Amino acid sequence: MVSLNTVAPAAASPRPGLSETGVAIDARVEKIYYGDFLAVRDSHVAVEKGQITGFIGPSGCGKSTVLRSLNRMNDLIPSFRLMGSVTFLGQDIYAKSVDPVVVRRHIGMVFQQPNPFSMSIYENVAFGLRLNRFKGDYDEKVETALRKAGLWNEVKDKLRQNGLALSGGQQQRLCIARAIATNPTVLLMDEPCSALDPIATRIIEELMLELKQEYSVAIVTHNMQQAMRVADKTAFFSVDISKGGRTGFLVEQGDTRQIFHDPREKLTKDYISGEFS
Ligand SMILES: Nc1ncnc2c1ncn2[C@@H]1O[C@H](COP(=O)(O)OP(=O)(O)OP(=O)(O)O)[C@@H](O)[C@H]1O
């Protein structure tokens, strides 16, 4: 059982394996507000173990809002308010006793813009380990994370160089290395390729397919082809403008093939045929 209550040294709290199938994160969003604005309603989203779950839908439908609710990243926005529940391996991540720093160690995040810190490549990867008061072999952890992120061969001779000196695609892989260094169970990726060229995008997509051997992944993407290429499961969101607002909601979630080729809902069908026509 994972403890979400205190910052335990990273090495002392092993990551649950992906041997069993099932749900890693179960989010039952009733409502999400920013101040008085109802941004998302009625969205039950699951991130399954060892799979990639894609979040798709038109701009403003709440994909990023829901994604960022899955590891309490939205806590940093004072006007944010969630009604409903989000459980990680059966535990309520919004429970009073839970430490959001520990949640984010188990559920890491990669953002749209590569955002390495202005520090060395090595220290970028070691950052989360230091935050989590890791006491073991830093060199080994940094190398392993860089290898898993497919970056080791490109940076092994310049680990003391500033991370900001890398190319955009390399910076994004550095951010992935930083996210996986603390041995998370889930990786959340918010449009991780939107700032990258097609070659760097393809590298990250291939990396995602490798990462799902070890991690459960949820990715927000605007790119439907990307969702089809990488996602096992797809959650399609839409925007309700019927009451004069703009409120996002989940239309349906299912196997990616089913969502793209045999959607249950007309809204999904219309969106997908519009995107591909
Ligand atoms: N920090 C915030 N404060 C207030 N409103 C916000 C905030 N972040 C997002 N919103 C609003 O919440 C709604 C959902 O935004 P969100 O970014 O989650 O949608 P999205 O589907 O990811 O959009 P996009 O595809 O354009 O990135 C939008 O109306 C947006 O303007």
From TrEMBL:
<dbReference type="InterPro" id="IPR003439">
    <property type="entry name" value="ABC_transporter-like_ATP-bd"/>
</dbReference>
<dbReference type="GO" id="GO:0005315">
    <property type="term" value="F:phosphate transmembrane transporter activity"/>
</dbReference>
<keyword id="KW-0592">Phosphate transport</keyword>
<dbReference type="GO" id="GO:0016020">
    <property type="term" value="C:membrane"/>
</dbReference>
<dbReference type="GO" id="GO:0035435">
    <property type="term" value="P:phosphate ion transmembrane transport"/>
</dbReference>
<dbReference type="InterPro" id="IPR017871">
    <property type="entry name" value="ABC_transporter-like_CS"/>
</dbReference>
<dbReference type="InterPro" id="IPR005670">
    <property type="entry name" value="PstB-like"/>
</dbReference>
<dbReference type="GO" id="GO:0016887">
    <property type="term" value="F:ATP hydrolysis activity"/>
</dbReference>
<dbReference type="Pfam" id="PF00005">
    <property type="entry name" value="ABC_tran"/>
</dbReference>
<dbReference type="GO" id="GO:0005524">
    <property type="term" value="F:ATP binding"/>
</dbReference>
<protein>
    <submittedName>
        <fullName>Phosphate ABC transporter ATP-binding protein</fullName>
    </submittedName>
</protein>
<feature type="domain" description="ABC transporter">
    <location>
        <begin position="23"/>
        <end position="272"/>
    </location>
</feature>
<dbReference type="InterPro" id="IPR003593">
    <property type="entry name" value="AAA+_ATPase"/>
</dbReference>
<keyword id="KW-0547">Nucleotide-binding</keyword>
<dbReference type="InterPro" id="IPR027417">
    <property type="entry name" value="P-loop_NTPase"/>
</dbReference>
<keyword id="KW-0067">ATP-binding</keyword>
<keyword id="KW-0813">Transport</keyword>
